[in-house]
Design a protein that fits this description.
The chain is an alpha/beta fold and 410 residues long. The protein is built from 18 helices and nine strands. The strands form three sheets. Strands 2-3-6-1-7 form a five-stranded parallel sheet, covered by helices on one side. Bound molecules: adenosine-5'-diphosphate (ADP) and magnesium ion.
Length: 410
């Protein structure tokens, strides 16, 4: 099903945007909202795709609200945040004694949400065994509680979301192909912020007003050059990042007119994330980064190899907990920041914390050191809130949790 962007949004689209506080008129965004409304009354699974921070979470809510299930329960589950060991029990419930610690039987979300909608966020993070259970319940409406042999029935509509390429996950054997087809009957793609043109300004102004009100501070304004800079910035963290940046500006630049110079202190790696208006392939930045990363990684391996020869050993050491082991996940920005990030000429750090976004690291350190440091800083910036830190790093909470343990960052 493919709907064209409607130049004049329907009253229902306007109503949905208003109700959920969705700002923006970019045709691709409006088309996504319209698609959600159209598919809502049809009881099909929907897959919402788009980069992290694009606003995917609005869409399952729209679908639920515009469906016949609207009076029944809506449950949002972040598949990346639930430990693998308990996810089956969370979703499908368990019987008393099903495992150590199961002192009582418990209802799962599929039983709770009978008649309603379940939003499976970060669906690519589901373990394969859970994927099998999910496929069964989608195909037949049947499921078993963990530790039970009694088949139960439920009627649940699934809306799933992902910011990873699920087809690639299927090709790698990390995601069941049959489940992929089942979930993706209808897909809704949410465009990245950098492609939304004038929406960037609308969102900036809305967030400025909101934060000025929330913090009871005089409102910030934006100079033309600053608006131009923001329009051409890559926004790797999309609307979530824009909101964060405006919140910091609202707090620390209250009453000021924001210039490009001010922005440089708040936008990480503005130089490498800036999209020139014409003629340059923006993806080349991404490629450049990956190339640099590859080079550093190879160097590191060579060093390790040399080191082990010097030590008399023969084994080639790989960086422990390095990125290669977890190729399923997005690489963190762990290479020496001096290579990619320009230190703002003025005061280095965003004044919100003592942890600067960009900081020149003179000695590159190992990949492991850099990864550890990246994670430590993200945690500090977010006052130890793991969900927020994971979002910022664009990894799942589970991965973050594992890395925290691995690096002893608790
Ligand atoms: N179009 C929009 N208008 C207003 N706020 C938005 C918009 N898109 C995203 N947001 C806000 O940005 C943040 C990230 O959105 P979220 O739905 O969590 O992103 P995702 O799930 O795609 O990572 C939330 O605070 C959300 O309210
Ligand atoms: Mg999300």
């Amino acid at each position: 099903m493919q709907y064209n962007a409607n130049p004049t949004p329907t009253p229902q689209v306007l109503q949905a945007k208003q109700r959920f506080g969705i700002i923006g008129n970019a045709p691709a965004l409006t088309a996504a909202v319209e698609r959600a409304i159209r598919v809502a009354p049809i009881d099909l699974s929907v897959l919402v795709t788009g980069e992290s921070g694009t606003g995917k979470e609005f869409f399952p809510q729209i679908i639920h609200a515009f469906s016949a299930r609207k009076h029944a329960k809506y449950i949002a589950v972040n598949c990346g945040a639930i430990p693998e060991g308990t996810i089956d029990s969370e979703l499908f419930g368990h019987e008393k004694g099903a495992f150590t610690g199961a002192v009582d039987s418990r209802k799962g979300y599929f039983e709770e949400a009978d008649g309603g909608t379940i939003f499976l966020d970060e669906v690519a993070e589901l373990p394969l065994t859970t994927q099998a259970r999910l496929l069964r319940v989608l195909e037949s409406g049947e499921f078993l509680k963990v530790g039970s042999s009694t088949v139960q029935r439920t009627s649940v509509r699934i809306v799933a979301a992902t910011n990873v390429d699920l087809q690639a996950a299927v090709a790698d054997g990390r995601f069941r192909e049959d489940l992929y087809y089942r979930l993706s009957t209808v897909q809704i793609h949410i465009p990245p912020l950098r492609d939304r043109g004038a929406d960037i300004r609308l969102l900036t102004r809305k967030f400025s007003t909101d934060f000025a009100e929330r913090y009871r501070m005089p409102q910030i304004s934006f100079g033309e050059d600053a608006e131009e800079t923001m329009r051409h910035y890559r926004w790797p963290g999309n609307v979530r990042q824009l909101k964060n940046v405006v919140e910091q500006l609202a707090l620390f630049e209250a009453g000021n007119e924001i210039t490009t110079q001010t922005l440089e202190q708040y936008l990480p790696s503005i130089s490498s994330s800036y999209m020139p208006a014409i003629g340059v392939d923006v993806h080349s930045y991404q490629r450049e980064r990956e190339m640099l990363f590859g080079m550093i990684f190879n160097l590191q391996n060579r060093l390790d190899e040399l080191q082990s020869r010097l030590d008399g050993g023969v084994a080639v050491q790989m960086p422990k907990g390095g990125l290669i082991e977890h190729e399923a996940e997005k690489p963190l920005e762990t290479f020496p920041t001096s290579l990619v990030v320009r230190r703002p000429e003025t005061s280095a750090a965003p004044p919100c914390s003592d942890v600067p976004y960009s900081e020149v690291v003179d000695t590159p350190g190992t990949l492991e050191d850099n990864e550890r440091e990246t994670i430590r800083r993200a945690l500090l910036r977010n006052d130890g809130r793991r969900k927020a830190a994971a979002d910022e790093l664009q990894i799942s909470e589970r991965t973050l949790y594992r890395k925290i343990k691995e690096y002893g960052l608790e």
